[in-house]
Amino acid sequence: MGRDGFISYSHKRDKDLAQALQRGLHALARPWTRRPVLNVFRDTTSLSANHDLWSSILAELEGSRYFIYLASPLAAESRWVRKEIEFWLDNRPPDRFLIAVSDGTVAWDVERSDFDWDRTDALPSVLRGRFPTEPLWVDLTQIRELGHFSLRQADFRDAVATLAAPMHGRTKDELDSRDIQERRIATRLRRGAITGLALLLFTSLAAGGFAWEQRGEALARARVSASQALAARSLELADTDPRKAAQFALYAEQVEPTGESAQALAQAVEANGSVVRHFQGGKDELADFRGAATAPQSHVAMSRDGGTLAYYSDLGDRLVHLYDIRADREMRSLPTNGGLAQNGSAPLLSRDGRTLALEAAYNRIEIWDVRQARLLRTIRASRGEDLAEAGKRLRSFALSGDGRWTAATYYAPAPARQELLLGIWDTRTGKPLFQGAAESEHVSLVFQDEDERLVAVDAAARSTRIYDLTSRRWGKGAAIPGLTTEDAVLHAAEGNPRRALVGSYEQKGTSELWDLVAGRRLVRAATGPVPNAALPADNPDVVVGSHGNAVVLYDAALRRGSTLGAFTWGVTSVAASGDGRWVAAASSDGAVSLYSAPKASASGVKIPKGVQFTRDGRLAYRSSWQEKRTELWLVVEGGLRRLGEIPRAVNAQDGAIAVNRNGTRAALYEDNGALSLWDPRTGRRVDWTLRYDRTPRLSPASLYFLADNVHVVSESSEGILKIDTRTWDVAAVVGEKGDYGLLGMSGDRQTLAAADENLGDIVVWRWSAEESRFRQTRTAAAAGTSARLLGVAVSHAGEKVATVDADSRLTILDTGTGHVVTSSVGAGQGLASVFFSRDARLLAQPFGSGEDSGIGLWDTATGDALGTWSLAAQGAAGPDTPVEVVQAPDGGILSLGGDGSLVRRQLGASEWRATLCSLVAEPLPEEDYDRYLSDLDVTAPCPSR
């Protein structure tokens, strides 16, 4: 169906105004018995996020009668708005171009019969000289500033009528009169209907109220059931298809937040821990392909500098997609003009990602400028269309790191038979540097960038030949006895044939690392074949490969290490940056994903050796007893921020030192029992010091600053004390001796909890800044634990308190209601630390040591376990070294690996949801939606990209 109008505007500035204008055009003069007379299109998706929408926008433009440009300086600068205007002016008369100014200036020069471009800043330059007479335009700048977006507002109504009049084919006065007449008719009918409906309303309210209540209960049960079913499906897919697991988890949380949906989110985040982005999911069309000759292609390629990714799939839109990894944005896609060669080679990128070589049908090589998405030239290796099917593709294919040379082996028509040739071309001119016999169809080609040579590896002869690109001569290579023509595989590091993976899948299969130039074997695989491999050219410690449906990292000895991700179907292609940081992979069903290794959640911060953290995780410190000094760092979201140092060594027990919120004061429990106050920036002690003879002896295990940055709280031999660091006045929070030796402080520094480590009793206080004192808010009796308590934690706003005992059992107290829940006994070696998510919905509990370390996740409402995250991949310092985990300032958790790296993990359903939406923003496929949500109205959980 055609459109009456098309609204073009700046999505960043005028989204609300454009929506109001569209509604106004639809509503003005609409007969009360009919749908809107005008049908005006407004694009609701930012084209800058995905330029592939242009084809659909173009269709709307072609079917529209009028073009309405919502003018502003931002719209004038938008390349997509300019593109829409250029199409319209090239294909439509200018008298159907309407202008509504939302911001900036538009001025007409009568003498020149053109806009006054010295004063006009709301129009793009493409409109220069396009109008012989002044076009129709209205000024909406004041309307936009006042927010008058209703037809009841005279100024907005007048502007809408001005734009709508030519589209209706009437004058503005005629249109306005018609609108008033239609509204009067609708008003009379509405009043009559209201009288009749009022009589029916009273009689139906009672029955309707009961039915509505029943419907609400049934709907609530249906939503919970659907959420649980989606969560269960997500957990099933976590190990085999992390992308779909993320989708199901997101919808489970969207339908109804439950403990099961939180568990699904947590495991989906863990399964996608190394994923930077899922570009496309697998396609069901895979089932339509039959036989090896029609196997669908899915390829990935990556530039050595890690800046550019290219990917293609037969099951996609048949475009070569390009992605700028550094800028995190899609680039212009490349059309496969004549189609890619069936079962052909993967696209090849130069070292800097500026040049792409693509094998096209038949035996042609296309050279593309990646940044401009422009085809530079086409190299015809041979007339492949004249060959038998087996000869209609390149046998091997290579591009030099600088993008200057490309090489291939291929068949060419000959009078009696097909002739196998090897060719080398200059990509700048397309002229051949060499063309001659390939000697064997089992030849693989690898450029050696360092010496400008091409290494031709002949699996049949089990040897190499080397072509010098400077002298243009072939030289003798080396013997490679590990090669075989049977199911041979060869993967070399880009530009570095001195590190290549060779092998076969005969019987059990083998894989070996070879120096192809010297003919020297470097490593024999310890774990069998490594298919679909990529060797980072600048990182000899890593090999990327596949293992079944998974993308796996291998070490320098080809031993299988950590898994980056997995697909529903087998991996068909992998690629890696030169340093091994970025990895891309494709599956046979067209799925494509980008990974970061090590994990993308790593903060990139290396923690100095010997650093310890306080119990609340806010402060990191390192003491030197020989030098009698302590360095201090504040734990921030990005890692650590250095505060300075003080000329004292700190006892190694947690809690011996604390800092205020901004790090300007540090309170230190000294070895002689005194409490001193320091300025970390200068390293000087503040004048007054509280000595042990003025107060009961303090405990170094608990020391916290309150929210006012002045008072500190500590446990002592005579109870819990509050100390004013300005006057050193001491007051008891609770004077009972008891065993309340475990203290916890909320993130906002206003709620204090103490636990009896033997009986398990919990007492909670809330700080009153006005009264400068604590008020007791909750007491919980012993929860029945038989094990000694190890630690206590308080949520950020003090809503909940948790304790952990020696059996790893958690007790969670709701400070508002007094409700207590207890978890089952945790698995593994329990630690004293537990951490709340920012919303207090979840609890994290570190456990274990070395390779067995991890984080348990718990539902604070029920005490149910939500699964675990492994920390083994972080590289623990030793098999008996406990994992060190602290609370991050934003409510997440920071864990310290054995290599000194600080890894940040988000903790909380909302944070996990945001993370997964950044990876998988697409709605659930229609088939899955109908299966789980057919009777429910559920919006997509993620905004579209």
Describe the structure.
α9 (259-271) crosses α10 (909-919). Among the domains are: 3-170, Rossmann fold, CATH 3.40.50; 603-737, YVTN repeat-like/Quinoprotein amine dehydrogenase (Methylamine Dehydrogenase, Chain H), CATH 2.130.10.10; 738-905, Methylamine Dehydrogenase, Chain H. A 5-stranded parallel beta sheet has the order 2-1-3-4-7, sandwiched between helices. It has a 4-stranded antiparallel beta sheet with strand order 8-34-33-32, with no helix packed on it. Strands 9-10-11-12 form a 4-stranded antiparallel beta sheet, with no helix packed on it. Helices cover 19% and strands 36% of the residues. A hairpin with a 5-residue loop joins β56 and β57 (842-847). The model is unreliable at 46-51 and 599-604 (pLDDT under 50). The protein is globular, with a radius of gyration of 35 Å. This is TIR domain-containing protein. The chain crosses the membrane at residues 193-212.
List the helices and strands and how they pair.
Layout: E1 3-8, H1 11-27, E2 40-42, H2 54-62, E3 64-71, H3 73-77, H4 79-91, E4 97-101, E5 108-109, E6 114-115, E7 137-139, H5 141-146, H6 154-168, H7 172-237, H8 242-255, H9 259-271, E8 275-280, E9 298-302, E10 308-313, E11 319-324, E12 329-335, E13 348-349, E14 355-360, E15 364-369, E16 374-380, E17 396-399, E18 405-413, E19 418-426, E20 432-437, E21 443-448, E22 453-458, E23 463-468, E24 473-479, E25 489-493, E26 496-504, E27 510-515, E28 520-524, E29 543-547, E30 550-554, E31 560-566, E32 571-576, E33 582-587, E34 592-596, E35 602-606, E36 612-613, E37 619-624, E38 629-636, E39 639-646, E40 657-659, E41 666-669, E42 675-679, E43 684-690, E44 698-705, E45 711-716, E46 719-724, E47 730-734, E48 742-745, E49 751-755, E50 762-768, E51 773-780, E52 789-794, E53 800-805, E54 810-814, E55 820-822, E56 835-836, E57 842-847, E58 854-859, E59 865-870, E60 884-887, E61 893-896, E62 901-905, H10 909-919, H11 926-933
Parallel strand pairs: 1-2, 1-3, 3-4, 4-7
Antiparallel strand pairs: 5-6, 8-34, 9-10, 10-11, 11-12, 13-14, 14-15, 15-16, 17-18, 18-19, 19-20, 21-22, 22-23, 23-24, 25-26, 26-27, 27-28, 29-30, 30-31, 32-33, 33-34, 35-62, 36-37, 37-38, 38-39, 40-41, 41-42, 42-43, 44-45, 45-46, 46-47, 48-49, 49-50, 50-51, 52-53, 53-54, 54-55, 56-57, 57-58, 58-59, ...
Protein name: TIR domain-containing protein
Domain TIR: 2-166
Transmembrane segments: 193-212
